[in-house]
From TrEMBL:
Residues 22-132 form the AB hydrolase-1 domain. It comes from the Bacteria. This is AB hydrolase-1 domain-containing protein. It comes from Streptomyces prasinosporus. Keywords: Hydrolase.
Amino acid sequence: MPTFTARDGTALAYREGGEGEPLVVLPGGPMRAGAYLGDLGGPDAHRRLIVPDLRGTGESAVPSDPVTYRCDRLVDDVEALRVHLGLDRMDLLAHSAGGSLAVLYAARFPERVGRLALITAGPRAPARRTVRPAARTPS
């Protein structure tokens, strides 16, 4: 399984299959290795699928700092994968919890995303805020 090195030095693995234009597939779970996705039912007949094992899953190493498991920190891993692959832009397909990661990546690096597909995703990580009720004024 090929590997690349994250910005913090963690060794991260990914698998490739198929031929054609690259499609980076972010697994859900959360924290589930990408192997469960298989070949996604056939897009590898027309696309080169690149499926990373997120840090601490599958063949990827466990990071020394557990804070780096945060979704907003995983964005750096996706960017390191893009750089490693030598892609100017990439198409992203994200499943389930991978949707939050994909949306955060697209928000931080919009110029690096060609197409974005979210499959059964519930992207909650970007922009969580507390809404406070308006102050009441005396009548």
